[in-house]
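@channel sequence for tomorrow's demo:
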Amino acid sequence: MKSYNIPRHFIILVMSVFLCAHAGAIETVCSPDGKLVLTVGIKNGKPQYSLKRGNETVLKPSFLGFELADGNLSDGFKIVKTYRDSHDETWQQPWGETSTVRNNYNELKVNLEEKKGLKRKLNIVFRVFNDGIGFRYEFPQQKNLTEFQIMDELTEFAMPSDAKAWSQPTNGTEYYEALYTCEPISQKDTVSTPMTIEVAPDLYMAIHEANLTDYASLNLTPRMSKDDTPVLVAALTPWQSGVKVYTKAPCVTPWRTVTVANTPGGLITSYIALNLNEPCQLEDVSWIEPGRYVGIWWGMHMKDYTWEQGPKHGATTENTRRYIDFASQHGFKGVLVEGWNYGWDNNWTVNGHEFKFTKPYPDYDFEGLQKYALSKGVRLIAHNETGGAAQNYENQLEEAFALYHKLGINCVKTGYVNILLDKKELQHSQYGINHYRKVLEAAARHQIMVVNHEPAMPSGLRRTYPNMMSGEGMRGQEYNAWSADGGNPPYHVCILPFTRGLAGPMDFTPGIFNFENKAVPGTRPQTTIAKQLAEYVVLYSPLQMAADMIENYEYHPALTFIESCPTNWDKTLVPLAELGKHVTIVRKDRDSNNWFIGSVTDENPREFSLKLDFLDDNTTYQMTVYEDGIGADYKTNPYPLNIRQETVTSLSEIKLRLAPGGGTAIRLIESKK
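structure tokens (generated this afternoon):
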């Protein structure tokens, strides 16, 4: 008799599929690898779902539904029909952390109908990936549910334990710019998403949303269940009327996403949110250009320049030409200029309606500077601060973007420094979400990329509109210039990739080399120079700013790393990470066989061994290491920097030595034969 050596993973997969098919619950659907099992059913007329990984509970039974203005749509249901589907494709990103994304899931669609009364219909679609789930509601066309108002979404995420979670509070926080803190879920107030949870040493979760379209942003409020485990309940950002969403059938909600990983790094390399957005809607993406830029910006925070007109006005023709010359000399594609247009002279956070997006100040030659920039192989990035006057901006979009396109300006940085748009509605309400979409679509029509500050939290829309390049929505570098608490704490950069970074690219604006602050003494980057360099790899954005004033870069040896570091990647790996303590990220350049490494730590010094087995076999690389020098310390001496070189291969193992609040940035260039 012949014996067959059947791989163990294949046996597990077959058994998992068998168990899924014969589970006792009403409906189950498994991930393609069989490891995640989603169960869907009705309990006392209420729809619910749960999730397991093998024998391990990821989510306990969690209820689903809505409170509408004219009554609940959450109980009295029966399942009338189910549909199943499977999907497996690989698609190409025009830019991103990786060149290709695999979209592989099993789908279960459950059609519900109220058993009595109006017999309204509600469908719920579940997709189960190998690394998590996504689900959304569908309101089909029906006579008893046409135009309606959602007062609350009743979606639950019932946790298996009171686990530690990283999040930022919703209440009392403007622009998503609070610090992420770690507490048991039960101790949280209402929080924004993504929310990242460490359930067990080998079970990490992140809850967020995907394809946020014509709807309110998702927040989560914890409550305790009868068995003393927390349940996270959806809390949508409201209109001032108290209504969460105005809509009409047929319509769909955004996807609710739960990413599941064995390691913290697995959260970063999951692309569920992108896969749950629609494919690219732009026929031509050749004009979308990742790259690096400098800008007239940090000098305002340092009080060397002003946004408004006057003797210290920063956005002058002469000053901008200096920045253009520097950008051209050092290989930067763009120059951001803030304060170039009318509207800054008064209290612009109150009088945002005075901003003019095509009218430059007299000392700023808008058209002439763009021509000069193009002659140097550089483009201007037009800053569009709105002061929260969204309607004023919408009224000028077509004229402004048409002008920018005519001049060859292909990127804008938008800003909304006023938590109430048009003095009435929250930025993250349905009103704000629809405004941001109008801007993005108008920009796409005129072939303009967008870097959005004070944004809605990203939800993967960059797949559909890849001109949505990057955004804020976090405490960025600017807090190291003027915050009353002295700047971002050392752990901040160590947690951002696992929280805000899961939503999408971050315009954190790294690269400060001069830590002296005349404007707010004692407030400065709580990092070393080497950590500032490492942030270019650790904090992903396809458009990366070198944020310091250009005079602080001249003749500085650290600038060579920024000049060489790409912003568009073929692969991303996370070999070392502990939430909020340290992270090491490895990325491969999309346009060459070169690799880059960024490693950062919190206030504690650390040493690691890192194997370079991700490199190509039988290939040598010239490694340049930018590391903390002798005596480097974020508190007392942030400047020491050691730069060294050696030859390495895929068999090499290197030592990373990070000072307190420090980091290491590494460039690996393939040796030419």
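heads up for whoever presents: The chain has 13 helices and 39 strands.
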